[in-house]
Specification:
Layout (H helix, E strand, L loop, with lengths): L2 H8 L3 H10 L4 H4 L8 H9 L1 H12 L4 H8 L3 H11 L15 H7 L5 H4 L17 H10 L1 H4 L2 H6 L6 E5 L6 H12 L2 E4 L8 E3 L2 E3 L1 H8 L5 E5 L2 H4 L11 H13 L8 E7 L17 E4 L5 H13 L7 H8 L6 H9 L5 H22 L8 H11 L5 H18 L4 H17 L15
Parallel strand pairs: 1-6, 1-7, 2-5, 5-6
Antiparallel strand pairs: 3-4
Keywords: ATP-binding, Nucleotide-binding
Protein name: ATPase AAA
Pfam families: AAA
Length: about 450
């Protein structure tokens, strides 16, 4: 059953369901699949607690003051105010809060008894079985942008059409190609990456072919996502200070020529960019690449989950590494939380680098000691940590800083908590590594 069907059956909006999952910190894997199929446990919970969910949905649509929320959930006014202050929702001039604030969600954070909710989800989906870790806020944001692909409601009721182009922007290594594949999975499209050599003229079977030919061929297919890396470089605005690459300029013109036909030809192009700053504004016009989705580095909680995931991924049940992890209780999440906290602003790629380095070091120790009772010491973790930190350059930190400026300007209301958390982690490097320039970090070329 699709979430839209369950929402229609129970007369509760899809948005209320998604906000409920976030407010009660439910694992997405326990509730929904990537394609919005509802898990049996969640269907059972929703049907048996439809009255509560309707009260939750009704409360969510109301504007309300701190005092009204406190009276409703019988919690101290100052504690309610603190929760709201931490989340910083939108507020009207009269002091009333917008409908994104849930009285029940606040009550849950303050220790209200909602055990009946969690009784349905006693067996959490293992990390190795999840389609992705964390990022519920980003998944729901992307799903909202893709809504015209998932139903006809947006077109029929509001005249909102499918986007022809999407830009995923974020620091290097943050997982843009992962999310492009995830978008393909959500809307049921085939994922095809535009390789760099497709952009020029090449010989195929002794015949010349170019990017125009490639795009025309793709448009003869249906339900295809075309993924293009380095979008901000290829689509940069040209001026007197910027040298023009003829191949890039031709690529831009070809895309501008065809993008108006992408929707009817069931083509979606996704560009991956480190930043939106350099992209030609002409590309960002309505009907072109007018949907921009920020891809964040993982937060501390997600980092610990990712470390455990990558350390145990693809291991056989009797794997030597798994036995060593179990001996150290490193097959459990708490083991990784301390080192994950130190990895401030680390990208997904840096986390993978850390786990690969640590695995090799553990293997080397095993070959010396020939025992699975090897202690994973702090020194061992620190050595792998230093290996992963080689990509934490001043250039990377500057890219994170630029990303924060852009996402704060474009999507602050959507990602307030994530933006503030990343800003605090970035500030750590300013404090720890003084002296720094008054604005920004040193470039990678500075001595």
């Amino acid at each position: 059953m699709k979430l839209a069907e369950l929402a229609k059956e129970l007369k509760i909006s899809i948005q209320s369901f998604l906000k409920f999952i976030q407010d009660f910190d439910l694992e997405l894997a326990d509730c929904l699949t990537t394609t919005f199929e509802v898990k049996p446990e969640f269907i059972k919970f929703a049907r048996e607690n439809k009255d509560f969910l309707r009260k939750y949905a009704e409360d969510l649509t109301k504007t309300k003051s701190v005092q009204q929320i406190a009276d409703n959930i019988k919690q101290p006014t100052e504690k309610v105010a603190q929760v709201i202050k931490d989340e910083k929702p939108q507020i009207f001039e009269n002091g009333m809060y917008r409908s994104s604030v849930s009285s029940f969600g606040i009550d849950n954070k303050l220790g209200g008894n909602y055990q009946f909710v969690y009784n349905y989800f006693g067996k959490n989906t293992k990390l190795t079985k999840r389609s992705f870790i964390g990022y519920r806020d980003l998944f729901f944001f992307i799903s909202e942008a893709l809504e015209p692909y998932l139903s006809n409601v947006s077109v029929e009721n509001w005249g909102i059409h499918k986007p022809a182009g999407i830009i995923l922007y974020g620091p290097p290594g943050s997982g843009k190609i992962f999310w492009a594949n995830k978008i393909a999975e959500i809307i049921g499209y085939d994922f095809k990456e535009i390789k760099k050599h497709f952009l020029g003229t090449t010989l195929v079977d002794n015949e010349k072919t170019d990017f125009n030919d490639f795009l025309v061929t793709m448009m003869q297919e249906e339900n295809v996502i075309l993924f293009l890396e380095n979008f901000d470089q290829l689509m940069a605005v040209r001026n007197e200070e910027t040298s023009v690459n003829g191949c890039d300029e031709e690529t831009k013109e070809i895309i501008l020529h065809y993008i108006g036909h992408f929707e009817e030809e069931k083509i979606l192009m996704i560009g991956a960019a480190d930043s939106l700053f350099k992209i030609d504004r002409e590309l960002l016009a309505p009907g072109r690449f007018d949907v921009a989705i920020p891809i964040f580095p993982p937060n501390a909680k997600e980092r610990s989950e990712m470390l455990l995931y990558h350390m145990t991924k693809e291991l056989a049940s009797d794997a030597l590494l798994l036995k060593i992890l179990e001996f150290n209780k490193a097959n459990l999440l708490p083991f990784w939380q301390e080192i994950a906290e130190k990895m401030k602003a680390y990208s997904n790629t840096m986390l993978v680098d850390f786990t690969q380095s640590l695995k090799k070091r553990i293997r080397n120790l095993y070959q010396t000691e020939n025992s699975t009772e090897i202690k994973i010491t702090k020194n061992l973790l620190e050595a792998a940590f230093k290996d992963a930190a080689t990509k934490l350059t001043d250039q990377y930190l500057n890219q994170v800083e630029q990303f924060l400026k852009e996402v704060s300007r474009n999507n602050f209301e959507d990602f307030q908590l994530r933006i503030r958390a990343l800003a605090e982690e970035l500030e750590y490097y300013r404090v720890v590594e003084k002296p720094r320039k008054s604005i920004g970090f040193k470039s990678g070329t500075d001595s």
